[in-house]
Write a structure and sequence with these properties.
By secondary structure, this protein is of the alpha/beta class. The protein is built from 13 helices and 7 strands. Helix 2 crosses helix 4, helix 4 runs antiparallel to helix 5 and helix 12 packs across helix 13. InterPro entries: AAA+_ATPase, DUF815, P-loop_NTPase.
Length: 341
C-alpha cells in the first residue's frame, strides 16, 4: 500500500489539524487498492485489510518516533479521516469497512465537488456563486431546487435541462445546488461523455448522491457523444444509477448544433426518423427550465442588485452604454456593476 515515508512526502497532502503521520496513514487507508471492494467485503478481503492494518500500525509507530512532527494542516479533520485513524489504532478491519461504507473511499470521502475529464479530480475549494447572485429567475431557481431536494431525500426526481440565452445564470443556478445539504457534484467535460460508463459504475457504489453537471452542451447529432448521452437518459437497459441526477445547461433548446429542415409531407420515413432522433435527446430530460433573455428593465435591476444600492445620477446611462456592445444579460450586469463601484 502506498503511503508517505518521509516528512517531505507529507507536503503534497491535504492534511487536517493534528498529528500528521496518523492522518496521512488514515488517508492512505481511504486510498487503498481494496477500498472500493471493501464496500461489499468478503471474508478474504477482511483478512487482507487486517494484515494491512497490522503492518501500517507498526509503520505509524516507526514514523512517529523517527520523525516527530507538529500539526501541518489548518482544517478540521473529516469524520472519514477520524474513523480511519481509529480503525488503524485499533487494528480493526470491520471498523474500517464501516467507515468506507459510510463515507466512501478517497476522494469521495473527503470532498463534495469533482471534475471528470476521464479521471475524477477532487475540487477542495469549489468556486460557488453567492446565494443572492441570480436575479430575475426566482421561479426557475425554486423549481430547480425543489427537484434537487427531492433527489437528495431519496424521492423520485427528474433529470434537468436549463436552457436559455448566454449570461442568464443557468450555470450559476446549477452550481448553486452544491450548497444544499448532502449534495455532491461532478462536473463532466463534454469531450469525455463517451467515457461516462466508468464514472457511473464508480458513483453507483458510493453512499452519496451526486449531481452530474454537464455545462454548456452543444452536440453534433452525428457524433458519438450525442448518441451516448441519449442512450444514457432512459434509452438503455441500464441508465444512470439511482444516486445520480443529470443537470445540464445549454444555449440550444434541443442541445444540437444543427437540426436541419423539417421533411416535407410525403417524404421518406427515414427523413422523419432522423429528425425525431435528433429531437429526442432534450425530451429525455424530465424537467426543462427556460431562462429567457434579459430586457432593459431586468438588466438595470440586476446592475443595482450587484451594486447593492439604487443607480444614481448618470449611472443608469453608463450601465446602458456599457451594454451596447454586449447586450443585456446577468453577466453583463455584474461587469457593469463592477465598473460603477
Amino acid at each position: 500500500m502506498d503511503h508517505p515515508k518521509t516528512p517531505l512526502d507529507l507536503l503534497s497532502l491535504d492534511l487536517p489539524e493534528g498529528e500528521p503521520w496518523g492522518y496521512a496513514l488514515a488517508q492512505a487507508l481511504l486510498k487503498a487498492p481494496w477500498a472500493f471492494r471493501a464496500l461489499r467485503p468478503t471474508p478474504g478481503l477482511v483478512d487482507l485489510i487486517r494484515m494491512d492494518l497490522e503492518a501500517l500500525y507498526l509503520e505509524l509507530e516507526r514514523l512517529r518516533q523517527e520523525y516527530p512532527l507538529g500539526s501541518l494542516g489548518e482544517r478540521p479533520p473529516h469524520p472519514a479521516e477520524e474513523g480511519a485513524l481509529r480503525a488503524l489504532l485499533a487494528r480493526d478491519p470491520l471498523a474500517l469497512v464501516e467507515v468506507l461504507r459510510a463515507h466512501g473511499p478517497w476522494p469521495f470521502a473527503l470532498y463534495r465537488a469533482f471534475r471528470f475529464d476521464g479521471e475524477v479530480h477532487p475540487l477542495p475549494s469549489p468556486r460557488l456563486p453567492r446565494e443572492d447572485e441570480l436575479v430575475g429567475y426566482e421561479a426557475q431557481r425554486q423549481a430547480l431546487e425543489e427537484n434537487a431536494r427531492r433527489f437528495l431525500s431519496g424521492r423520485p426526481a427528474l433529470h434537468t435541462l436549463l436552457y436559455g440565452a448566454r449570461g442568464t445564470g443557468k450555470s450559476t443556478a446549477a452550481k448553486g445546488l452544491l450548497r444544499l445539504e448532502g449534495a455532491r457534484m461532478v462536473e463532466v467535460e463534454p469531450r469525455t461523455l463517451s467515457r461516462l460508463e466508468t464514472l457511473l459504475e464508480t458513483l453507483a457504489l458510493l453512499p452519496h448522491r451526486f449531481f452530474l453537471f454537464l455545462d454548456d452542451l452543444s452536440l453534433d447529432p452525428d457524433g458519438e457523444a450525442f448518441h451516448h448521452l441519449k442512450a444514457l437518459l432512459e434509452g438503455s437497459l441500464e441508465g444512470p444509477p439511482e444516486n445520480v441526477l443529470l443537470v445540464a445547461t445549454s444555449n440550444r433548446r434541443h442541445l444540437v448544433r444543427r437540426l436541419g429542415e423539417n421533411p416535407l409531407p410525403g417524404e421518406a420515413p427515414e427523413a422523419w426518423d432522423a429528425l425525431q432522433d435528433t429531437l429526442a435527446l432534450s425530451e429525455r430530460f424530465g424537467l426543462v427550465l427556460t431562462f429567457p433573455p434579459f430586457d432593459k428593465a431586468l438588466y438595470l435591476k440586476a446592475v443595482a442588485h450587484h451594486l447593492g444600492r439604487p443607480l444614481r445620477g448618470q449611472e443608469e446611462e453608463e450601465a446602458l452604454r456599457f451594454a451596447l456592445q454586449k447586450g443585456f444579460s446577468g453577466r453583463v450586469a455584474r461587469q457593469a456593476a463592477s465598473l460603477l463601484r
